[in-house]
Amino acid sequence: MYVRHAIGVFAVAALCVGRPAAAHTLTSTLSGLVAPKLLIDAAPDYPAAALADGIAGTLHAQLELSVTGTVTAVHLQNSLREDVDLAAVAAARRLVFRPAFSDGKAIPASIRYHFHFRPREPSAPLVAEPPAVAALPAVAEPTSLEALALTAESATIAAGVIRAVNVRGKNARRSASEIVRERDVLEAAPHRSADELLFTVPGVFITQHGGEGKAFQIFYRGFDAVHGQDLEIWAAGAPVNDVSNVHGQGYADLHFLPTEVVKELRATPGTFDPHQGDFAIAGTLRFDVGLADPGLTAKAELGSFGSRRFFLGFRPAQASDSTFGAVELYHTDGFGPSRSAERASALGQWVAALGPEDQLRIFASLFTGQFASAGVLKLADVESGRVDRFATYDPNQGGSSSRGQLVAELQHQDETARWTLSTYLVLRSMRLRENFTGFIKDPNGDSEQQLNRDLVLGATGSYRRKLSIFSKKDAIEGGFFARADWIDQSQRRLSVVDGSVTADEVDARVLGFDVAGFVDLCLVPWERLTLRGGVRLDGLGYSAEDVGGAAAGQARSSQGTHFGAKGTVDFKVLPELHALLSYGDGFRSPQARSLSEGETTPFTTVRSGELGLQLSLPFLRGSLAGFYTTLSDDLVFDQSTSRNERVPSTRRMGLSAELEAVDLGGLVLAASLTFTQAEFSASNAQYHAGDLVPYAPQIVGRIDAGYRLSLGELWELPVEAQVGAALSVLARRPLPFGQLGHDVALVDARAELTVGPASLGIECMNLFDSSWFDGEFVYASKWNPSDAAALVPGRVVTAGAPRTFMGTLTVRI
Amino acid sequence: MKQRTMSLVIVAALSGCGGGTTGRLVELRTTLTTDLGADHRFTTGLGWTVTLAEAQIATGAMYYFDGEPAFTSVRPGLIEQLIEALEPIHVAYAHPGHYVAGNAKGEQLSPFSADLLAGPAELPVGDGVSGSFRSATFSFAAPSAGPAQDALEGKVVRVLGTARKDGRTIHFLASAGLTDLEKTAKDAQVSGCDFTAAEVLHDGTVTITVHPKVWFSLVDFAELPDGSPEAPAELGPESTARIAFALGLTQLSAYTFSFKPL
């Protein structure tokens, strides 16, 4: 089942006739009567309580439009339920139209608008164009108000522009802390890349220690997911995680997504959903893409440190926001030596109706980026002033990344069942050159070059149909997942002096397969009680052949299966308050090179549970949840190998709270705070049971706030101001050897003034110019080859970015 | 009531955020001293009574490990037991290649130079990790820092003194450079020295005690001319005395380490 709403046929009410000409402040070169045209769309939020209670149907509304195209009144002609009605009214008030014109002058208008509310499941992100579009006759251009009214009257019945707008239905929740962030929150504060949108997810903090083009390091609910090892990430229907990446398992680079095309970010913590697969240890993140504004959007940005960015996007006026094309070009000189970066990305998506119940989605993207990296500094050198905090010991660090992606998805929906079939192709390449230790391992330098190339081919599918065991809301879904990876990877040590290869450490070809099937049930035995859950069976197979390095010529393979049970009990305490108890088994695939011949149980297994409350009021929603997770073994970054290495089993327990203001006029407010204790539950030579897991922060907080205000008109153009800010906090970051990292508090802010189709804005990252460290580690390093060897660990850091400004000019046509 | 409840929840959650990661980094002050008495005098196993007038040393990196020290206790014969009864210093015989250092637990990396007769010298602060300290590596380095670097004139050890035996007094000047030491100790490092067993849990001071008597334990001054206070007899390059002196400088038992918490 899915959600959509559709624009109904417009009608110019007779009451518009005879309004004083003085009310006409906009003019148009168009002659005769011109109907209003939607400029800024706004989809209603599907109230969680209504979704859970199965409230569905169509709301018919009549909207009064002003001469500036804003909605001045909303009249509902029927009702579904109060919270649903309010959601529709709130969305309607955010709509902005090009006003109706009569003989070139803007006039008030009244139109009909319909909202279809149907719940949507996560695997069916889009809705089909209504088949009625192709069958409807065209509407003749009216020549007078009366004729327009008459024509519209008949047009109401027989014809009109019906458009399927972006689907925003929220899936049935699997846990109390599950959350969906939409554009209003995503756009409140400035973000330089799609990765930074993750800051809006409760419990997430990200850092960039390897240069502006390297995948971010992600911390989430007590997990140091490094570059993605503990987070399953999907974008536009394709997986983002690299399997067995030589730098780190699950490496996920999101730089290919411009922020403008992210319309929704869904975070599913834990591993409670049978749809979740590999890497869903801390949870799953899904990016849904689309372009907000119809027409052409061009944006130029100029900022600190030689930063410049150009974005161009287009979206057909008659298409939903899911059909679009976009390109992004970006360059920066960087805020210090060896910090330059540049990237180029082009992407597009096309959604088309194939019939009354079927739709096809095609997504394609190409991305390339390269970056320099300053690497680490010894904290003692920074604090003593021996080096500047933005200096670099080894200026030859950096890398490049590229990604090509093609996704094709077929979807069918009728009254009783829904199925989807999707296939994807991803081409990935990554090159990194990093030196974490200086001259510890090799007198010629410890610079490590890592290359990883991956061809990914995969498919997913599901079939969902209604059941009638306890109620009409019962349903069952079965599905499959398949992914194959062909990987070429290498790691070589390079001389710092001349870049020559001094050691051949890894040279391997890896073949990986992941095939899974799942069954997911939804049963509602009582109106207050909903049971969701199922099972998932994954079969993984790997073969690795070393073509170089110390193990040249060796080949091995391993295979295993993982069975995962997942379930959620959702109890409606009050209409606005739900209690949820969730449990799930999950897994993470291993680094294929680390496997032994014939190994049959190669996974890291995870068990997670959560108990929480979720609140949904008309103007406020929030959640409070306690969670507990155990891992059979874990991965911690080892600087001596420049990779994540296996460590003993761990457990995490914590508390997560979040609030979001809903429909408060132009105000956006979202806040969250997460506490987590992550510790070892077993010992080895290096770590002891009961000790904290290094690098996993204990306290993460975030506040996003934004406000949009209409300022009237200028030169007969609507004027609007928008301001926004965010506060990100990270505290109690344990480091090895009993150390604690520096706490971080960062404020980002933006302001924008819009006059008609043009917007001028300014963004500021790190508003108060905090001196902070985004990467902090503890290990031995030696940065002068003539110095005595350092054998004892010491603090090494990467400096966080200073205050950075970016001016933006946007034109929407 | 609701506010109090929320406060309790936050306190409970925060209290659970305690604990630490495995191990601890500690700061190690480093002191260099000798076991010489106020008269700077000792008698070697060869019967020479040596009185030091000047003694400078240039040190390099010091490392501390959790592996057992290198020297073993050689079962002494009757004469050796008699000598041991008269000599408070046990002459240890290292077995190169048998020493297993184990995990590095601490270090002091900065070069330094010191006047051994001027009292305990404070070396730059070193770093360590908590755990068992059982052995150490003592190293020499070209003099580049510290109060005695000028007096050393490029050498790593310089000793001025007198040696008396059987009524004869020899004024001597013994010195050694890195090349002298590297003939018997790789990279001029003496690995496997004894570190008095210590469980280091917090910051403290590592004391390095130099035993000059071991330096001269194999030196027979008889081959030297008497010299004078103004023109002391130098241990010539490639001379037996110079070689014996260099051997003494690289004896494990010439340096012992200990730790005292703050």
Features of the shown structure:
heterodimer, A: 813 residues, mainly beta, 22-stranded antiparallel barrel, 47 strands, B: 262 residues, alpha+beta, 6 helices, 17% helix, elongated, disordered N terminus
Strand and helix map with partners:
The complex is a heterodimer of chains A (813) and B (262).
Chain A: E1 33-34, E2 37-40, H1 48-52, E3 57-65, E4 71-76, H2 82-94, E5 96-98, E6 100-102, E7 105-107, E8 109-117, H3 132-135, H4 145-158, E9 179-182, H5 183-186, E10 204-207, E11 217-220, E12 223-224, E13 231-235, E14 238-239, E15 241-242, E16 251-252, E17 262-269, E18 283-289, E19 295-303, E20 307-315, E21 324-332, E22 341-353, E23 358-373, E24 377-378, H6 379-384, E25 397-413, E26 417-434, E27 447-466, E28 475-494, E29 501-526, E30 529-548, E31 555-574, E32 577-588, E33 604-616, E34 620-631, E35 634-638, E36 643-647, E37 650-664, E38 667-680, E39 699-714, E40 717-731, E41 734-735, E42 739-740, E43 744-755, E44 758-765, E45 773-779, E46 794-799, E47 804-812
Parallel strand pairs in A: 13-18
Antiparallel strand pairs in A: 1-6, 2-5, 3-4, 3-8, 6-7, 9-17, 10-11, 11-12, 13-14, 15-16, 17-18, 19-20, 19-47, 20-21, 21-22, 22-23, 23-25, 24-46, 25-26, 26-27, 27-28, 28-29, 29-30, 30-31, 31-32, 32-33, 33-34, 34-37, 35-36, 37-38, 38-39, 39-40, 40-43, 41-42, 43-44, 44-47, 45-46
Chain B: H1 2-15, E1 25-34, E2 41-43, E3 49-59, E4 62-65, H2 78-86, E5 104-108, E6 112-115, E7 121-129, E8 131-139, H3 149-152, E9 157-165, E10 168-176, H4 178-181, E11 189-200, E12 204-210, H5 212-215, E13 233-234, H6 240-249, E14 255-261
Parallel strand pairs in B: 1-12, 10-13, 11-14
Antiparallel strand pairs in B: 1-7, 2-3, 3-6, 3-9, 4-5, 4-8, 5-7, 8-11, 9-10, 12-14
